[in-house]
Amino acid sequence: MIDFNEMISNHLKREMRPKTIGRYYPSEVGYCLRKSWYSYKKPKETDIETIKIFEMGNIVHNFVVDVLNSEKNPHVELIEAESPFLLNIDNFLISGRIDDIILVTVDNQKALLEVKSTSKLNYVKEPQDSHVMQLQLYLHAKKMQVGYVLYIEKNTLQSKIFEVQYDENKVNEIIDRFRAMDFYLKQDQLPPAEAKMNEKKGWLCASCPYFEECEKEKVQ
Ligand code: SF4
């Protein structure tokens, strides 16, 4: 008998690659700085079930690329998928990969598209702060004005899309968060337990791999 669950796990299993202090990623700044700090200081293997969820996100993204490339949608043109970028700030780097750059040919406007998969589209009333932060940073890196956060429900392919305008003040706040993270890491100082202190972020703690370590420390 074939154990296909095991085959998927084998296929997706990855080597853990420790992160380098001084090189940061847009996806980690919008959540809990303490959790990100731990991921540099006490790296842990990502559990296989979480890797499977990430892989489903990749599958959804590949589908979005097919839709954008489809000749049946001539009003939107995919210019570039998975575009890398590097921002040099003070004495650290922010590196990332932008999902898609599209050209909406109706109004000849270039825009960035950030794709997120979700299991419950009904709950998505507005784009998540962390997703908007990522997009703002990408707009900044690419010197573009308009972006969209696209949510796709994994089991129905229903979607919701939100327009985001570039906001320089917001970008400065985001870069300040990276500065704070860089400071805490280089000073070897634990940041406050942000998710515990912020109602909107409290849900992060339930699936945080550093819950036990964090519980032993002061909140601030
Ligand atoms: S348990 Fe919560 S507050 Fe602590 S590091 Fe994890 S997400 Fe942050």
Give the arrangement of secondary structure elements.
Layout: H1 4-12, E1 23-24, H2 33-41, H3 48-69, E2 76-89, E3 92-104, E4 109-118, H4 129-142, E5 146-153, E6 159-165, H5 168-186, H6 194-197, H7 211-215
The structure holds iron/sulfur cluster (SF4).
Question: Your description of this structure?
Answer:
By secondary structure, the protein is of the alpha/beta class. The protein has a single domain (19-214), classed as Lambda Exonuclease, Chain A (Alpha-Beta Complex), CATH 3.90.320. It has 7 helices and 6 strands. It has helices spanning 4-12, 33-41, 48-69, 129-142, 168-186, 194-197, 211-215, and strands at residues 23-24, 76-89, 92-104, 109-118, 146-153, 159-165. Helix 2 packs across helix 5 and helix 4 (129-142) crosses helix 5 (168-186). The longest helix is centred in the first third of the chain and has 22 residues, at 48-69. It is globular. The mean pLDDT is 92. The chain binds iron/sulfur cluster (SF4). Residues 32, 34-35, 193-196, 204-205, 208, 210-211, 214 line the site of iron/sulfur cluster.
